[in-house]
Design a protein that fits this description.
The complex is a heterodimer.
Chain A: E1 4-7, E2 10-13, E3 19-25, E4 32-38, E5 44-51, E6 57-58, E7 67-73, E8 76-81, E9 90-97, E10 109-110, E11 114-118
Parallel strand pairs in A: 2-11
Antiparallel strand pairs in A: 1-3, 3-8, 4-5, 4-9, 5-6, 7-8, 9-10, 9-11
Chain B: E1 3-5, E2 10-14, E3 19-21, E4 24-26, E5 32-38, E6 44-50, E7 56-58, E8 64-68, E9 73-78, E10 87-95, E11 100-103, E12 107-112
Parallel strand pairs in B: 2-12
Antiparallel strand pairs in B: 1-4, 3-9, 5-6, 5-10, 7-8, 8-9, 10-11, 10-12
């Protein structure tokens, strides 16, 4: 259980275009979804946190107008990289969590990631 | 500041040998602790987690981790490593008050024949 998917797995686009990445929780309803960015051989950097039906909370230094996040339902969140440039090339990973009835901390389950290359 | 440290950037272990990956945390109170594994070009898979109770936690794929409050550590172990265990391993901590998962820098495990 607790499977998260991402689509597409990899995308190549031209500079100046926009790219949308989807993150879906397949077998649970995600109360919270997270978007991370990972540079080669580095750890994950949290970009934003989103709750269904509300605006995303962005981390310091992340441009909210460039990285648009929509969390339209309890199973789907999208990240749109607007006017992408080569420096936006990276590995983007989403995760999802749900409220534990036991009161335990929410565990994050990660998607397989999306490799974005901007030419 | 809250942080997670993985002191070893990479470790090489012979197949069949035992493994221990180190993780230390710096938090005001004991956070919730996790170990994730990432294969090249893939997302993260949860190996195990510690919230409370028994300080020795069993996970998937034969991994276990031991929480030691006195050392602020949560080291990951496996008694016999398989070639398929070669991957990047991330320790992470969660302060439930902020819901933000903080990752260590990762340890790359190489398995030699």
């Amino acid at each position: 259980g607790a499977v998260v998917s991402q689509h597409p797995s990899r995308v190549i686009c031209k500079s100046g275009t926009s790219v949308k990445i989807e993150c879906r929780s397949l077998d649970f309803q995600a109360t919270t979804m997270f978007w991370y960015r990972q540079f080669p051989k580095q750890s994950l950097m949290l970009m934003a946190t989103s709750n269904e039906g509300s605006k995303a909370t962005y981390e310091q230094g992340v441009e909210k107008d460039k990285f648009l996040i929509n969390h339209a339902s309890l199973t789907l969140s999208t990240l749109t990289v607007t006017s992408a440039h080569p420096e936006d090339s990276s590995f983007y990973i989403c995760s999802a969590s749900y409220n534990q009835p036991s009161g335990e901390a929410d565990t994050q389950y990660f998607g397989p990631g999306t490799r974005l290359t901007v030419l | 500041a809250q942080s997670v440290t993985q002191p070893d950037i990479h470790i090489t272990v012979s197949e069949g040998a035992s493994l221990e990956l180190r993780c230390n945390y710096s938090y005001g109170a004991t956070p919730y602790l996790f170990w994730y594994v990432q294969s090249p070009g893939q997302g993260l898979q949860l190996l195990l987690k510690y919230f409370s109770g028994d300080t020795l936690v069993q996970g998937i794929k034969g991994f276990e981790a031991e929480f030691k409050r006195s050392q602020s550590s949560f080291n990951l172990r496996k008694p016999s490593v398989h070639w398929s265990d070669a991957a990047e391993y991330f320790c992470a901590a969660l302060n439930t008050g902020f819901q933000k998962l903080v990752f260590g820098t990762g340890t790359r495990l190489l398995v030699s024949p």
